[in-house]
Amino acid sequence: MNQWRDAGFVPAISLERRAGRPLWLQLVDGLRSELVSRRPPSGTPLPSTRELARMLGVARGTAVAAYEQLVAEGCLTGRRGAGHYVAELPAAGAAEGARRGSPAPPQPAATPDLFRPGQPDLRLFPRLEWSRCMARAWRRRNAWAQGADPFGDPDLRRAIAQHLVVWRSIRTSPEQIVITAGSIGGLELLFRALPPSPDCIAIEEPGYPVIRHLAAGFGHRVRGIPVDGAGMRVEMLAGSSPLPALVIVTPSRQFPLGHLLAPERRRVLLDWAEAGHAFIVEDDYDSEYRYGGRPVPALAAMDRRGRVIYAGTFSKVFSAGIRLGYLVVPERLIGAIRSALRRFGTRASIVPQPALAMFLESGAFARHLRRTRRIYDARRRFLLDGLERRFGDLLRPGDTSGGMAFAVFPRSAFAPDFDDRALARAGAGEGFGFAALSDHFAEGPGTRGLLLGFAAHEEGEIAEGLDRLEALLEARILNLRRE
Asked: Which of 39, 254, 345, 375 is spaced 20 to 30 Å from 286 by Cα?
């Protein structure tokens, strides 16, 4: 044991620079394999990222990314600048049994549905930092629900306000922020606070079907406003009868097509809302993931007249299981929101809120966001390259500049045979989670295509998924390849 402590764990790894797999992922695989086979005891130090990079002849960032991944998986402990150490590994008998060929216990699938849109990779989740925040929060807070502010934990609301200034150019006060049970919980709260009226609610067409069903369930009339390459056609709002009292829009990345709402249309939308005393809900569901240039400021950052309700969520960059989101509401709506919370209560869990505040304040959330943005960008490019090589004559991608998924459309020669709903049904029976684009249209037949998620899958999984997708398409569409 002492020899490990004195010498540390020095891996024997070789990397193949001409392989299709990125160097940092090769390094993750090599380190993980070495840890399992050589079994250094818990607490054994590893080389610094600088030293490891020098040993392997790679950039230091490659070593940093590999260590971060293994910390997230629980193989290593420590953090950048403070050294890295071997974590508690499985019992040696289990590893020896695996080497002898005995069946290993079944492992839960990390990504159960291939290409499901909006699904983050929870293997990248910084569990160690989150568990520390939870432990500190639990020690500090004793009466979780006694006298709790219905708007949510004050520390979390302050942390969100600071986050929005940096990431979305929104300047707001914590008093305008209300913590919700995810983005849908935020819409439910709004629909309770703004009761049905003779006016209607305008949503994007195509859009997220749940929003239409939710609004209708609360007694609101819903009208779809068409979308083109510049986002919602906001000029059509003026011709609506009756005029909408509320518009729900995804300006930073239209769902599901991915287009930005053009600057001129943003100005027109804000002017229209002011003139008609209407409100705009800005659903900012995954704007943090933009891969070309700087993130576009939120629509709420342009609002100077208190007409935009900003809806944010942690599910795309953190975890869907935590089910926490937030609204930033204009001051004139604070009273209506507070009244609705008094009448119906809050559905947002109180327990994780102090820990999430610490997670944000410590910088761990921002680090996780920057790291996953880099990884998801590589996966996006890998999927695009694979689609072009395999299906370039059949499929064309839509807007791929951001997000965790993008739409692909059949080329004109194959459009008549491309039944996206039938493909989605067939794919669901074979482990796929991609969505039919036409399911997102409520008015008319819509446009056919597939919505493919890529964030949750490593490159090897994407390659396997493309193999299976090719078999599915060949089985469902005649003349897939031109002779």
From this structure: 345
Phi, psi of 222 (to 5 degrees): -120, 135
Q: What is the pTM of this model?
A: 0.76
Helix runs in 392-458, H state only: 420-428
Q: In the structure, what pLDDT confidence band is assigned to residue 7 with cuts at 50, 70 and 90?
A: low
Residue 296: C-alpha distances to residues 120, 290, 380 (Å): 21, 8, 19
Q: What pLDDT digit, counting tens, does each position of 43-90 carry?
A: 888 888 888 888 888 888 788 878 877 876 678 887 556 788 888 655
Residue 180, strand partner residues:
325
3 state SS for 317-355: CCCHHHCCEEEECCHHHHHHHHHHHHHHCCCCCCCHHHH
Please state at what angle helix 352-361 crosses helix 364-391, rounded to 10 degrees. Answer: 80
Domains and CATH numbers, the chain: 2-99 (1.10.10.10), 145-350 (3.40.640.10), 366-476 (3.90.1150.10)
Which residue type sits at 61?
A: G
Q: Which residues pair with 193 in a beta bridge?
A: none
Q: Which of 176, 436, 225 is nearest to 332 (CA)?
A: 176
Question: What single-letter amino acid sits at 418?
Answer: F
From the centroid of its chain, how far is CA 303? Answer: 25
Measured on CA atoms in the order 316, 319, 320, 326, is the torsion positive or negative?
Answer: negative
- Cβ neighbours of residue 455 under 8 Å, at least 6 residues apart? 119, 120, 121, 289, 372, 376, 379, 404, 405
167 near 297, Cβ under 8 Å? no
**15, HSE (Cβ side, Cα atoms, 13 Å):** 23
